[in-house]
Specification:
Radius of gyration: 20 Å
Oligomer: single chain
Distance between the termini: 34 Å
Number of domains: 2
Number of helices: 4
Strand order of the largest sheet: 21-20-15-16-23-17-22
Length: 405
Protein backbone atom coordinates (compact mmCIF):
# COMPACT_ATOMS: atom_id res chain seq x y z
CA UNK A 1 0.00 0.00 0.00
CA UNK A 2 1.31 3.45 -0.93
CA UNK A 3 1.40 6.05 1.77
CA UNK A 4 0.33 9.07 -0.18
CA UNK A 5 1.69 12.23 1.32
CA UNK A 6 3.27 15.47 0.23
CA UNK A 7 6.82 15.25 1.51
CA UNK A 8 7.86 18.86 1.06
CA UNK A 9 10.54 18.56 3.69
CA UNK A 10 11.95 22.05 3.74
CA UNK A 11 12.40 24.21 6.77
CA UNK A 12 12.64 28.00 6.80
CA UNK A 13 15.53 29.00 9.10
CA UNK A 14 16.09 32.77 9.09
CA UNK A 15 13.13 32.93 6.71
CA UNK A 16 15.18 30.95 4.17
CA UNK A 17 13.00 28.68 2.03
CA UNK A 18 14.75 25.41 1.42
CA UNK A 19 12.18 23.42 -0.55
CA UNK A 20 12.62 21.40 -3.75
CA UNK A 21 11.21 20.07 -7.04
CA UNK A 22 11.24 17.04 -9.25
CA UNK A 23 12.22 16.37 -12.82
CA UNK A 24 11.21 13.28 -14.65
CA UNK A 25 11.50 11.13 -17.71
CA UNK A 26 13.13 13.01 -20.52
CA UNK A 27 15.09 15.24 -18.13
CA UNK A 28 18.27 14.29 -19.93
CA UNK A 29 20.57 14.79 -16.94
CA UNK A 30 23.81 16.75 -17.29
CA UNK A 31 25.37 17.79 -20.57
CA UNK A 32 28.30 15.42 -20.06
CA UNK A 33 28.01 11.65 -19.52
CA UNK A 34 27.13 10.84 -15.93
CA UNK A 35 29.53 8.75 -13.90
CA UNK A 36 28.40 7.41 -10.55
CA UNK A 37 31.19 6.84 -8.05
CA UNK A 38 30.76 3.57 -6.16
CA UNK A 39 33.98 3.20 -4.16
CA UNK A 40 36.08 5.32 -1.83
CA UNK A 41 36.19 6.10 1.87
CA UNK A 42 34.05 9.19 1.16
CA UNK A 43 31.32 7.27 -0.71
CA UNK A 44 28.09 6.13 0.96
CA UNK A 45 25.51 3.93 -0.81
CA UNK A 46 22.02 5.41 -1.06
CA UNK A 47 18.80 3.88 -2.36
CA UNK A 48 15.40 5.08 -3.47
CA UNK A 49 13.17 2.29 -2.20
CA UNK A 50 9.90 1.75 -0.42
CA UNK A 51 11.38 2.91 2.87
CA UNK A 52 11.87 1.02 6.13
CA UNK A 53 8.29 0.95 7.41
CA UNK A 54 6.41 -2.29 6.81
CA UNK A 55 3.14 -1.79 4.95
CA UNK A 56 4.07 1.68 3.71
CA UNK A 57 5.67 2.86 0.51
CA UNK A 58 7.55 6.13 0.71
CA UNK A 59 7.42 7.59 -2.82
CA UNK A 60 10.68 9.14 -4.03
CA UNK A 61 12.48 8.85 -0.71
CA UNK A 62 16.24 8.26 -0.79
CA UNK A 63 17.60 6.33 2.18
CA UNK A 64 20.93 5.37 3.72
CA UNK A 65 22.39 4.07 6.99
CA UNK A 66 24.16 6.04 9.71
CA UNK A 67 26.28 4.82 12.63
CA UNK A 68 26.01 6.74 15.90
CA UNK A 69 28.33 6.24 18.87
CA UNK A 70 28.60 7.39 22.45
CA UNK A 71 31.18 10.19 22.07
CA UNK A 72 34.76 9.01 22.33
CA UNK A 73 33.84 5.33 22.67
CA UNK A 74 33.33 2.22 20.55
CA UNK A 75 29.77 1.85 21.83
CA UNK A 76 27.92 2.30 18.57
CA UNK A 77 24.68 1.53 16.77
CA UNK A 78 23.88 1.55 13.05
CA UNK A 79 20.49 2.94 12.00
CA UNK A 80 19.27 1.99 8.53
CA UNK A 81 16.40 3.54 6.60
CA UNK A 82 17.46 7.14 7.29
CA UNK A 83 16.12 9.69 4.79
CA UNK A 84 18.82 11.75 3.02
CA UNK A 85 17.69 15.39 2.93
CA UNK A 86 19.68 18.12 1.20
CA UNK A 87 17.06 20.63 2.34
CA UNK A 88 17.68 20.39 6.10
CA UNK A 89 20.62 20.27 8.48
CA UNK A 90 21.56 17.69 11.08
CA UNK A 91 20.70 14.17 12.15
CA UNK A 92 17.26 13.46 13.65
CA UNK A 93 16.37 9.98 14.91
CA UNK A 94 13.35 8.72 16.87
CA UNK A 95 14.57 7.95 20.39
CA UNK A 96 12.56 4.72 20.34
CA UNK A 97 15.11 3.27 17.90
CA UNK A 98 18.21 4.12 19.94
CA UNK A 99 19.67 1.35 22.11
CA UNK A 100 22.78 3.19 23.34
CA UNK A 101 22.92 5.96 25.93
CA UNK A 102 23.78 9.30 24.34
CA UNK A 103 24.52 12.26 26.63
CA UNK A 104 21.81 14.90 26.42
CA UNK A 105 22.51 18.63 26.45
CA UNK A 106 21.61 20.82 29.40
CA UNK A 107 21.72 24.56 30.10
CA UNK A 108 21.18 26.30 33.41
CA UNK A 109 20.41 22.88 34.92
CA UNK A 110 17.59 22.44 32.40
CA UNK A 111 17.26 19.94 29.55
CA UNK A 112 17.66 21.36 26.05
CA UNK A 113 14.89 20.53 23.58
CA UNK A 114 14.11 21.44 20.00
CA UNK A 115 10.99 21.89 17.91
CA UNK A 116 11.73 21.53 14.19
CA UNK A 117 8.90 22.57 11.88
CA UNK A 118 8.65 21.69 8.20
CA UNK A 119 7.00 23.70 5.45
CA UNK A 120 4.20 21.15 5.15
CA UNK A 121 3.13 21.97 8.73
CA UNK A 122 4.50 18.83 10.37
CA UNK A 123 6.95 19.08 13.24
CA UNK A 124 9.50 17.12 15.26
CA UNK A 125 9.97 17.41 19.03
CA UNK A 126 12.57 16.02 21.40
CA UNK A 127 15.87 16.47 23.16
CA UNK A 128 19.28 17.54 21.86
CA UNK A 129 22.00 14.98 22.51
CA UNK A 130 25.60 14.46 21.44
CA UNK A 131 27.00 11.61 19.34
CA UNK A 132 29.92 10.65 17.18
CA UNK A 133 28.62 10.00 13.66
CA UNK A 134 30.17 7.60 11.16
CA UNK A 135 29.13 7.48 7.50
CA UNK A 136 31.20 5.52 4.96
CA UNK A 137 34.81 6.13 6.05
CA UNK A 138 34.07 9.59 7.47
CA UNK A 139 33.58 10.49 11.12
CA UNK A 140 32.29 13.57 12.88
CA UNK A 141 32.93 13.80 16.61
CA UNK A 142 30.66 15.18 19.32
CA UNK A 143 27.86 16.23 16.98
CA UNK A 144 24.64 17.70 18.42
CA UNK A 145 21.75 15.51 17.21
CA UNK A 146 17.98 15.65 17.62
CA UNK A 147 16.36 12.70 19.45
CA UNK A 148 12.65 12.66 18.58
CA UNK A 149 10.46 11.89 21.56
CA UNK A 150 6.83 12.86 22.14
CA UNK A 151 7.34 12.28 25.88
CA UNK A 152 10.21 14.73 26.20
CA UNK A 153 8.52 17.22 28.55
CA UNK A 154 5.27 18.95 27.63
CA UNK A 155 5.09 20.05 24.02
CA UNK A 156 5.17 23.88 23.76
CA UNK A 157 1.97 25.18 22.17
CA UNK A 158 3.90 27.25 19.61
CA UNK A 159 5.56 24.07 18.36
CA UNK A 160 2.25 22.63 17.19
CA UNK A 161 0.78 25.99 16.14
CA UNK A 162 1.21 25.23 12.43
CA UNK A 163 -1.54 22.65 12.73
CA UNK A 164 0.42 19.83 11.13
CA UNK A 165 1.04 16.39 12.59
CA UNK A 166 3.78 15.42 15.02
CA UNK A 167 6.12 12.92 13.34
CA UNK A 168 8.34 11.68 16.15
CA UNK A 169 7.96 7.96 15.52
CA UNK A 170 9.16 5.97 12.46
CA UNK A 171 5.65 5.18 11.23
CA UNK A 172 4.48 8.80 11.08
CA UNK A 173 7.86 9.99 9.83
CA UNK A 174 7.98 7.27 7.18
CA UNK A 175 11.66 6.78 7.96
CA UNK A 176 14.02 5.79 10.75
CA UNK A 177 15.43 9.28 10.83
CA UNK A 178 16.47 12.25 8.71
CA UNK A 179 20.05 13.03 7.74
CA UNK A 180 20.15 16.73 6.85
CA UNK A 181 23.15 17.41 4.61
CA UNK A 182 22.11 20.77 3.18
CA UNK A 183 24.26 23.85 2.61
CA UNK A 184 24.21 25.20 6.18
CA UNK A 185 26.11 23.95 9.21
CA UNK A 186 23.93 24.64 12.26
CA UNK A 187 20.20 24.14 11.73
CA UNK A 188 19.23 27.60 12.98
CA UNK A 189 22.43 29.63 13.21
CA UNK A 190 22.79 33.18 14.58
CA UNK A 191 19.03 33.69 14.87
CA UNK A 192 18.92 31.11 17.68
CA UNK A 193 22.27 32.01 19.25
CA UNK A 194 21.59 35.54 20.43
CA UNK A 195 19.16 38.45 20.22
CA UNK A 196 16.57 40.30 22.24
CA UNK A 197 14.06 37.42 22.26
CA UNK A 198 14.69 33.71 21.54
CA UNK A 199 13.28 32.52 18.23
CA UNK A 200 10.18 30.43 18.83
CA UNK A 201 9.48 27.68 17.97
CA UNK A 202 13.00 26.29 17.93
CA UNK A 203 15.19 25.66 20.98
CA UNK A 204 13.92 25.39 24.55
CA UNK A 205 15.12 24.91 28.10
CA UNK A 206 12.84 22.41 29.82
CA UNK A 207 12.11 21.51 33.42
CA UNK A 208 9.19 20.01 35.33
CA UNK A 209 7.53 23.42 35.20
CA UNK A 210 7.55 23.47 31.41
CA UNK A 211 9.65 24.53 28.43
CA UNK A 212 10.70 28.10 27.62
CA UNK A 213 12.31 29.38 24.39
CA UNK A 214 16.07 29.71 24.78
CA UNK A 215 19.18 30.78 22.96
CA UNK A 216 21.65 28.04 22.01
CA UNK A 217 25.17 28.71 20.76
CA UNK A 218 25.71 27.63 17.15
CA UNK A 219 28.25 25.02 18.24
CA UNK A 220 25.54 23.37 20.36
CA UNK A 221 22.77 23.48 17.76
CA UNK A 222 21.83 20.37 15.77
CA UNK A 223 24.57 20.29 13.17
CA UNK A 224 25.09 19.01 9.64
CA UNK A 225 27.69 16.29 10.40
CA UNK A 226 29.48 16.79 7.06
CA UNK A 227 30.81 20.12 8.31
CA UNK A 228 32.61 18.30 11.15
CA UNK A 229 34.37 15.66 9.04
CA UNK A 230 38.17 15.93 9.23
CA UNK A 231 38.30 16.11 5.42
CA UNK A 232 35.73 16.08 2.62
CA UNK A 233 33.71 18.57 4.66
CA UNK A 234 32.86 21.26 2.11
CA UNK A 235 29.86 19.65 0.46
CA UNK A 236 27.94 16.63 -0.75
CA UNK A 237 27.24 15.09 -4.15
CA UNK A 238 24.05 13.10 -4.72
CA UNK A 239 24.53 10.68 -7.61
CA UNK A 240 21.48 8.78 -8.91
CA UNK A 241 21.09 7.15 -12.33
CA UNK A 242 18.50 8.15 -14.91
CA UNK A 243 15.02 6.71 -14.45
CA UNK A 244 12.92 6.47 -17.63
CA UNK A 245 9.75 5.47 -15.82
CA UNK A 246 8.46 4.42 -12.43
CA UNK A 247 10.43 1.57 -10.92
CA UNK A 248 10.68 -0.40 -7.69
CA UNK A 249 14.05 0.96 -6.55
CA UNK A 250 17.08 2.96 -7.64
CA UNK A 251 20.62 2.72 -6.22
CA UNK A 252 23.22 5.47 -6.18
CA UNK A 253 25.89 7.17 -4.09
CA UNK A 254 26.32 10.06 -1.70
CA UNK A 255 29.85 11.38 -2.12
CA UNK A 256 31.36 13.67 0.50
CA UNK A 257 33.53 16.62 -0.44
CA UNK A 258 33.83 18.75 -3.55
CA UNK A 259 37.25 18.78 -5.20
CA UNK A 260 38.92 17.21 -2.17
CA UNK A 261 39.66 13.86 -3.82
CA UNK A 262 39.93 12.44 -7.32
CA UNK A 263 36.39 11.02 -7.07
CA UNK A 264 34.55 14.25 -6.22
CA UNK A 265 35.78 16.76 -8.79
CA UNK A 266 33.37 19.54 -9.76
CA UNK A 267 34.26 18.98 -13.40
CA UNK A 268 32.03 20.76 -15.93
CA UNK A 269 29.08 21.20 -13.58
CA UNK A 270 27.49 24.65 -13.65
CA UNK A 271 27.60 26.51 -10.32
CA UNK A 272 24.43 28.27 -9.15
CA UNK A 273 25.10 30.49 -6.14
CA UNK A 274 22.13 31.24 -3.90
CA UNK A 275 20.69 34.63 -3.10
CA UNK A 276 22.13 35.73 0.27
CA UNK A 277 18.76 36.97 1.52
CA UNK A 278 16.52 34.06 0.56
CA UNK A 279 18.91 31.13 0.21
CA UNK A 280 17.36 30.28 -3.18
CA UNK A 281 18.02 30.46 -6.90
CA UNK A 282 15.59 31.61 -9.60
CA UNK A 283 13.52 29.59 -12.07
CA UNK A 284 11.77 30.87 -15.19
CA UNK A 285 8.84 28.70 -16.21
CA UNK A 286 6.01 29.32 -18.63
CA UNK A 287 6.75 33.04 -18.80
CA UNK A 288 6.87 33.48 -15.04
CA UNK A 289 10.13 34.08 -13.18
CA UNK A 290 10.30 32.81 -9.62
CA UNK A 291 12.94 35.25 -8.49
CA UNK A 292 15.05 33.77 -5.68
CA UNK A 293 12.22 31.33 -4.97
CA UNK A 294 13.53 28.02 -6.35
CA UNK A 295 15.53 25.29 -4.63
CA UNK A 296 16.92 21.76 -5.00
CA UNK A 297 16.04 19.26 -2.27
CA UNK A 298 16.13 15.47 -2.02
CA UNK A 299 13.70 15.71 0.89
CA UNK A 300 10.79 16.64 -1.38
CA UNK A 301 9.27 13.75 -3.25
CA UNK A 302 7.91 15.56 -6.29
CA UNK A 303 8.11 18.57 -8.56
CA UNK A 304 6.04 21.26 -6.82
CA UNK A 305 5.34 24.36 -8.86
CA UNK A 306 2.61 26.86 -9.67
CA UNK A 307 -0.97 25.60 -9.62
CA UNK A 308 -3.39 24.02 -12.07
CA UNK A 309 -5.17 27.26 -12.90
CA UNK A 310 -1.93 28.77 -14.20
CA UNK A 311 -0.35 25.80 -15.92
CA UNK A 312 -3.47 24.14 -17.17
CA UNK A 313 -2.43 20.86 -15.57
CA UNK A 314 -5.33 19.51 -13.48
CA UNK A 315 -4.84 18.39 -9.90
CA UNK A 316 -6.04 14.95 -8.88
CA UNK A 317 -9.74 14.91 -8.04
CA UNK A 318 -9.12 12.75 -4.99
CA UNK A 319 -5.98 14.56 -3.82
CA UNK A 320 -5.23 18.20 -4.74
CA UNK A 321 -1.65 17.82 -3.53
CA UNK A 322 -0.70 16.16 -6.83
CA UNK A 323 -1.16 16.70 -10.57
CA UNK A 324 -3.17 14.24 -12.68
CA UNK A 325 -2.90 15.20 -16.37
CA UNK A 326 -4.69 13.04 -18.92
CA UNK A 327 -1.34 12.32 -20.56
CA UNK A 328 2.27 12.93 -19.57
CA UNK A 329 3.22 16.59 -19.98
CA UNK A 330 6.74 17.39 -21.24
CA UNK A 331 7.88 20.78 -19.97
CA UNK A 332 10.96 22.97 -19.68
CA UNK A 333 12.25 25.62 -17.29
CA UNK A 334 15.43 27.65 -16.87
CA UNK A 335 17.33 27.88 -13.59
CA UNK A 336 19.54 30.87 -12.80
CA UNK A 337 21.89 31.45 -9.89
CA UNK A 338 22.67 34.69 -8.11
CA UNK A 339 25.95 34.65 -10.05
CA UNK A 340 24.04 34.85 -13.35
CA UNK A 341 24.77 31.29 -14.47
CA UNK A 342 21.77 29.65 -16.12
CA UNK A 343 20.78 26.29 -17.56
CA UNK A 344 17.57 24.89 -19.02
CA UNK A 345 15.96 21.81 -17.49
CA UNK A 346 13.52 19.50 -19.24
CA UNK A 347 11.06 17.61 -17.06
CA UNK A 348 7.82 15.69 -17.30
CA UNK A 349 4.63 15.55 -15.23
CA UNK A 350 2.70 12.30 -15.03
CA UNK A 351 -0.64 11.26 -13.58
CA UNK A 352 -0.13 10.80 -9.83
CA UNK A 353 -3.18 8.56 -9.47
CA UNK A 354 -1.71 6.13 -11.97
CA UNK A 355 1.82 6.37 -10.57
CA UNK A 356 0.86 5.86 -6.94
CA UNK A 357 -1.47 2.97 -7.68
CA UNK A 358 1.59 0.77 -8.26
CA UNK A 359 3.98 -0.84 -5.77
CA UNK A 360 6.92 1.14 -7.14
CA UNK A 361 8.94 3.65 -5.13
CA UNK A 362 10.80 5.75 -7.73
CA UNK A 363 8.67 8.15 -9.79
CA UNK A 364 10.51 10.55 -12.12
CA UNK A 365 7.29 12.36 -13.13
CA UNK A 366 5.54 12.85 -9.78
CA UNK A 367 4.49 16.48 -9.34
CA UNK A 368 2.04 18.77 -7.58
CA UNK A 369 1.05 22.41 -7.06
CA UNK A 370 3.10 24.85 -5.00
CA UNK A 371 2.11 28.46 -5.74
CA UNK A 372 4.84 31.04 -5.28
CA UNK A 373 7.85 28.72 -5.36
CA UNK A 374 9.50 26.29 -7.71
CA UNK A 375 10.42 23.25 -5.68
CA UNK A 376 12.90 20.91 -7.40
CA UNK A 377 12.67 17.63 -5.46
CA UNK A 378 14.20 14.19 -5.70
CA UNK A 379 13.34 13.33 -9.33
CA UNK A 380 15.47 16.31 -10.39
CA UNK A 381 18.38 14.29 -9.07
CA UNK A 382 17.70 11.29 -11.34
CA UNK A 383 20.37 11.20 -14.05
CA UNK A 384 22.40 14.03 -12.56
CA UNK A 385 25.29 14.43 -10.14
CA UNK A 386 24.05 17.31 -7.98
CA UNK A 387 26.51 19.20 -5.78
CA UNK A 388 25.54 21.00 -2.56
CA UNK A 389 28.35 23.28 -1.37
CA UNK A 390 28.26 24.24 2.30
CA UNK A 391 28.16 27.84 3.46
CA UNK A 392 31.58 29.39 3.99
CA UNK A 393 33.51 26.31 2.82
CA UNK A 394 36.11 26.68 0.07
CA UNK A 395 35.63 24.62 -3.11
CA UNK A 396 37.01 24.65 -6.66
CA UNK A 397 33.80 26.44 -7.68
CA UNK A 398 34.23 29.17 -5.07
CA UNK A 399 32.98 29.38 -1.50
CA UNK A 400 29.61 27.88 -0.67
CA UNK A 401 26.70 28.03 -0.49
CA UNK A 402 25.76 26.93 -3.97
CA UNK A 403 24.21 24.13 -5.97
CA UNK A 404 25.87 22.74 -9.08
CA UNK A 405 24.85 20.26 -11.75
Amino acid sequence: MIERRVWQRSYLPFLIALLSCVTGAGCGGSSSPQKIVTSGQNVQPISVNAGPISGQIYPNGVFTSVTICVPGTSTCQTISGVLVDTGSFGLRIPSSLITISLPEQSANNNAVGECYQFADGSYLWGSVATADIKISGEQASSVPVHLLNSNFFTLPTDCSSSGGPEENDPTSLGANGILGVGYLGADCGPACASGSTPLSPFYYECSNSGCSPAFVAEANQVTNPVTLFATDNNGVIIELPSVSGETASVSGSMVFGIGTQSNNALGSATVFTVDPNTGNISTNFNGVTYTNAAFLDTGSNGLYFLDGAITGIPVCSDDPDFYCPGSTQNLSATNQGANGNSKSVNFSVGNADELLSTNNAAFPTLAGPNPGNFDWGLPFFYGRNVFTAIDGKSTPGGAGPYWAF
